[in-house]
Amino acid sequence: MWYDNLEEKKVWEHFEAISEIPRESGNEEGVRKYLLSWAEKHGIEAKTDKIGNVIMFKAGAEGREPVCLQGHMDMVCVKREGSSHDFTKDPIEIVLDGNMIRAKDTSLGADNGVAVAFALALLEENDPSFPPLEALFTVSEETKLLGANNLDASMIRSRKLINIDSEEEGIIYIGCAGGLQINAKKKAKLRDVSDDTIHLKLSVSGLLGGHSGGEIHKERANAIKLLARIMHRFPVYSLTDIQGGTRSNVIPSQAYASFVIDSEDEETIRSLVTNAAAEIKNEYRIQDPGIEITLETLAPVSQAIKFKTSVAFIEALYLAPCGVQAMSQAVPGVVESSNNIAIVKYEDGELKVLSSTRSLVESARNETALRVGAAFEIMGLKVFYDDGYPSWAPNPDSQLTKKVAEEYKKFTKKKPVITCIHAGLECGIINSLIPGMDSVSIGPDLFDVHSVNEHIDYQSAVRTMAFLRHLLKTL
After folding, report:
1. What pTM, to 2 d.p., does this model score?
2. Is it the case that residue 387 has pLDDT exceeding 80?
3. Which of 74, 288, 407, 445 is catalytic?
4. Which of 20-24, 109-113, 140-144, 235-239 shows the lowest per-residue confidence on average (mean pLDDT)?
5. Are 473 and 130 in contact (CB under 8 A)?
6. Choosing from 8, 134, 141, 426, which is the catalytic residue?
7. CA 371 to CA 365: how far, in whole Å?
8. Average pLDDT in the 201-213 region?
9. Contact 327/334 with Cβ under 8 angstroms?
């Protein structure tokens, strides 16, 4: 196996095992069965709540308070263009690339498979110096934080929680952004197309994409926004299709729009695309160097979406705020508010767009979402706001934070960074459901999560596991 010569072999055995089981958000039944079967085999108490979260408990050193290790079962499933991978049945194919662990042509699922693997390995150790250990594995964290929001809090015994869902070694997160989704749609009435037209397809691909919380500050390109930016320059067109993005928390790495134009405008539009592509590639040559923009001719069609509707939809995408909107004044270096134009599609006779807003400040979250919604509404789209979740407010009096920081410095001889993260974590929801819960979030170095380039630093994972082992002995 790829992990035969690696340290912390038990971690990678568990990681390989769950990587063989489909676990896209909403499809966690297979991994849930695996976890329950594993717990039964090892004599560890395990149960599920009504939503499908798995809670394990193992007795530890007498007189010690239990500690909960927490992560989520599901993963974001994205694949490289042209890949035949089927996330409903195919295992993730893991590749060891020097010091990095990747997947072949798909996202890796280290977010958050690494938390599951760490927790199972620690539960398996039978170390008498460990406190009682609880493990909480939630469902559908990547879509609507469903597991955390519907957690049966009465089943949780711990009042100390270590979330293992962050992506930077040496950082202790004690707060995170809250979020809100904006859905907008517009009915797409069709018109007949004359013979004197040309059917074209504009595609934007090759972007790095990534996590809309974890990578939004890197100012990578958004494929949907680039598509709208280019088409905003077009004189006249009628859409026949538009598709882009995969998940609400993923920066879109590819998008396309097909449309018809009058034949007399073809030369103008090809020139506009060529010039815009050159501008965009130059602008993003540092932070997103792989951008590809292509224009191809398609077979003729008999109908297309009416011109006014087509233009209004593209203009809405063009106008809507996207990317970092404000940096935090309370936590230096951290994004306060952002918006991600995440998914666009034409289906069931409607043009649809989903946007995801995040902020450390609830009022700023709401204001950003309303500005996005206003851009959609002014172009005639119907707007709906939903799936809000609370921010995790930092607790300056957290005894757990002080202890974790103290032990990290003692164990590594390095001072940790204590801060907040712009990505959403389940800690805020869990804390709100369980009075007295004290939480921190840590994790190894992960890169480009929620993308086909996702990878984990093997040595960082080994160090993080060693620190977790040390920390549990001291709590």
Report:
1. 0.81
2. no
3. 74
4. 140-144
5. yes
6. 141
7. 10
8. 94
9. yes
The per-residue pLDDT for range 104-134, each reduced to its tens digit, is 999 999 999 999 999 999 999 999 999 999 9
Question: 129 CB contacts (<8 Å, ≥6 apart)?
Answer: 61, 473
pLDDT, position 311: 97
DSSP symbol at 194: -
Contact 356, 340 (CB under 8 A): yes
In the residue annotation, 152 being an active-site residue is answered as no
- Quickly list H helices, 191-290: 223-231, 266-283
CB 165 within 8 A of CB 425: yes
What per-residue confidence (pLDDT) applies to 327? Answer: 94
347 is catalytic: no
- Residue 24 per-residue DSSP state: B
Closest by alpha carbon to 474, among 393, 369, 413, 403? 403
Q: Which of 162, 416, 199 is nearest to 299 (CA)?
A: 199
Q: Which residues contact 83 (CB under 8 A, 6 or more apart)?
A: 105, 106
| End-to-end Cα separation, the chain, in angstroms | 35
Reported as half-sphere exposure (CB side, CA atoms, 13 A), residue 113 has a value of: 34
Cα 49 to Cα 154, 156, 357, distances in angstroms: 10, 11, 29
Cβ–Cβ < 8 Å for 143, 359: no
Bridge partners for 205 per DSSP:
292
Q: Whole-angstrom Cα distance, residue 223 to residue 343?
A: 10
DSSP state of 320: S
Amino acid making up residue 107? S
Tokens of 174: 């004690």
Strand partners, 100: 97, 457
- Name the amino acid, one letter, at 311: V
Write phi, then psi, for 27 (nearest 5 degrees).
Answer: -125, 55
Name residue 243's beta-bridge partners.
256, 345
Token pair in block for residue 264: 């007399």
